[in-house]
TrEMBL record:
Subcellular location: Cell membrane
Source organism of this protein record: Pyrus ussuriensis x Pyrus communis
Predominant subcellular localization, coarse grouping: membrane
One Pfam family this sequence matches: DVL
InterPro entries associated with the record: DVL (IPR012552), DVL_RTFL_regulatory (IPR051525)
Top-level taxon: Eukaryota
Taxonomic lineage: Eukaryota, Viridiplantae, Streptophyta, Embryophyta, Tracheophyta
Coiled-coil segments on the chain, per record: none
Entry keyword annotation includes Cell membrane: yes
Topology of the protein relative to the lipid bilayer: Single-pass membrane protein
Keyword list, A-Z: Cell membrane, Developmental protein, Membrane, Transmembrane, Transmembrane helix
Protein name, as recorded: Uncharacterized protein
GO cellular component: plasma membrane
């Protein structure tokens, strides 16, 4: 009887671990997507700032 309970507990804990891995994987994907979006946003801002600065410097001539 004890052996059956141990096996059941192992199976249950395995499903919990699999579920938590899926949840963690989804969280990782969301974080990766957010980082990628922020990187793109920062790239665009940096390009715009550089372009405006170049126009400002050329206007002083």
């Amino acid at each position: 009887m004890d052996m059956v309970q141990v096996q059941c507990n192992q199976v249950e804990s395995g499903t919990v671990k699999a579920h938590s891995k899926r949840t963690g994987n989804g969280f990782s994907r969301k974080c990766a997507a957010l980082v990628k979006e922020q990187r793109a946003h920062n790239y665009i801002l940096r390009r715009c700032a550089t372009m405006l600065l170049c126009w400002y410097i050329q206007g002083d001539d």
